[in-house]
Amino acid sequence: MPNEVEKRESLDELRAKLDDLDCKVHDLLMDRADLVKRIKKVKSLESIATVRPGREAYILRRLMDRHRGGFPKAAVARIWREIIAGITRMEMPTYKVAVYVTDKNQTCWDLARDQFGVMTPMQHFAHIKVVLNSVLTGEATIGVIPIPDDESREPWWISLMVPSGLQIVYKLPFFKGTNVRNSPNNPASAFAVGRILPDSTDDDRTLLVIATEVPLSRSAVCALTKRVGLTSSLIASSQQGDWFHLVEISSFISENDARMEKLNKISEILKTAIIGSYAEPLPSFGNVK
User: Fold this and answer.
1) Which pTM was predicted?
2) 215-228: pLDDT as tens digits
3) N or C: which end of the chain has fewer CB within 10 A?
4) Number of C-alpha atoms within 13 angstroms, CB side, residue 113?
């Protein structure tokens, strides 16, 4: 009997320590929220954007690098995504997300929830053009749509080839270990677009559209960028009069990059346009498939 009492008391003591830790974590969250109020004032004075995909990537990468112990990294990432989402709503009460959803494809909705939090207002639409228009008109801050491929009937990415238009700013999921509903015909990945300036990190990808007069093979498209020192992979091609090729460049570049000037001088190329960039998603956490 004494041993049982000692064990019970020991358990009570441990639970008291957990309760104390919970209070400390909660105190830190409230302190973080107070600090955000001061940050919001600085951002408004210096015209700094509220939504900073690169800064978000930096936070999660830093936490993953310093994490230790048995608590799952995927859980840490989910917790901080909720913190980031809550803070963003504090800074921008109008923050909303438009999402492509159909009866047969719920993938983008799940990806958006994981990335932008359970409390962020989200609205779903059955047409990609409606999602994009919702962001264009300011009804939504971010739009989440499927990553295109050669089989896509709607080459929406060509419409982003306009100055000061929408940009692709996230590739989702940013971390593995989500509960996204998936099927072979609906791969669990998506792009998110918004009116957000490029925000580079130390590991980024740039999305570039190349227009040519004739169709080109996957290797031929990648060879064009390789001529100017840019490593790329082809995501999709579509014929809309001329041929348009969406490629992913394995680094961060901007329109004033000297390599872009060289690329546009290649005779096979009619024109090019950078339509976004994003931080490379986190690698697998090992025990998460």
Assistant:
1) 0.89
2) 999 999 999 999 99
3) N
4) 14
